[in-house]
Amino acid sequence: MSLTATGNATPADAGLVDELAALLGRQYVTTADEDQEPYVVDWRGRYHGRAAAVVKPASTAEVAEVVRLCARRGVAIVPQGGNTGMCGAATPDASGRSVVLRLDRLNRIRAISALANSVTVEAGCILQTIQEAAEGVDRLFPLSLGAEGSCQIGGNIATNAGGTAVLRYGNTRELVLGLEVVLPDGTVLNRLQGLRKNSSGYDLKQLFVGAEGTLGIITAASLKLFPRPRVSALAMVALPEIEAALTLMGRLRGTVGDRLASLEAMSREQIAVIAEHVPDVAIPFPLEAPWYLLIELTDTLAGTDLRTPLEEALGAALEEGLVVDAVLAESTAQAAALWKIRHSVSEGSKRAGYVVSHDSVVPLENQALFARNVERRIAEVAPEARIVMHGHIGDGNIHVLAILDARQFPDATAAAPMVARINAVVDDETAALGGVISAEHGIGLSNRGRLGRVTDPAEIALMRGIKALLDPGGIMNPGKVLPPET
After folding, report:
1. Residues 185, 71: contact at Cβ < 8 Å?
2. Can you tell me the distance from the alpha carbon of 431 to that of 362, in angstroms, rounded to the nearest whole number?
3. Digit-coded pLDDT (tens) for 42-68
4. pLDDT at 163
5. Pairing of the two strands 217-224 and 118-122
6. Contact 448, 478 (CB under 8 A)
7. Strands (E), 329-406
8. How far apart are CA 336 and CA 179, in angstroms?
9. Dihedral (C-alpha) 136, 141, 142, 143: value to the nearest 10 degrees?
10. Which positions ≥6 away from 320 have C-beta within 8 Å?
11. In 217-267, which residue ranges form alpha helices assigned H by DSSP?
């Protein structure tokens, strides 16, 4: 999908490129189309844009200089981390007028403290690098998701990423202690103190978490660390219905409490897609049940017996028919093999066809009804779609995917009418059951219209007011998040 021009930037000229090169060095300013390709196309290949330049500053000061230059010229800026997002939030439009600002070179770990359970990192740090740094001081940074080997923490914060550990540790918003942000006029807002308690006025950092670069550019963050788990127990179980997952969750929370670290659900069709399209994934039992659940318990106290309470809970569930089959990991390797199934959902679905994906979250009490309703209604409006689901059952977030035949729907333009019908079904059910359309993937380009359709107009008006106040020139990632104005 070629993007239409947005924002009010003026056409770039050689003078802009020369000034950028003078600031950063010519080698860090990319202008040739073939060299820009990795930065102007989103991860899923849905959105194709163009840029006046792709720039790679090496410091917060250089980011601020680039922003000031673009602000003077009225040139739009598209902040970009690892470019692993699901909604096109880091892709420029097709005008060729904007500057894509990559954060790769801002990749230092500035400070880490086991005493304070905190780490201060620059926005370009790879998530996995932060996890490993935390392990180096015997701590845990719990944010974990499929792209952790390539996604950058600035992008994780800008989209308020979730992942598989939200049940116990919360999403990214709850892991952020402080931020350093370059504002749209080039001012640097430094709130990196990392304090656990602060009631000194508005909590400004929260404006930028989940804002997808539309209010400023995150250049560094102070993040929470936690004690590192010493023991774990992992099981994969087959369920006769999705309600059984919620019943199991309630029981486990009552017996093991916060030791319940992850609860990840996958439909039978979702695992079948993975088995068909991702090599070297081992499925531990025949795909005969409609739902499957990964359950992980962890504890920071070495020697804690987690296997016994998990076995007892699953044994009782088997006797009652809540579980129809179960496999408990006997080793670290077996646990990794089970987790590989869950972490392969995006890769497998992408290879299976044109994916219409959703990121709805609804109250826990309504999850089962939501899953049943959307499956039935999508089948009615798109009988040719392969409907698969996976998600974080413990925090209300089920990803509903309708996979279309790529030969019939080769691109976004061809799929648009079908996508609109499917989206309407999912959005209607989400809103009717008290949920919202994005739990962790964000809005970006993909979901702007959907956000406007199901969100209280008062909320949209307030968001527009904040955007106008902080970015009166409209240069920060224009065309993202806020619905198109009618």
Report:
1. yes
2. 8
3. 988 889 999 999 999 999 999 999 999
4. 86
5. antiparallel
6. no
7. 354-357, 386-392, 397-404
8. 33
9. -120
10. none
11. 243-256
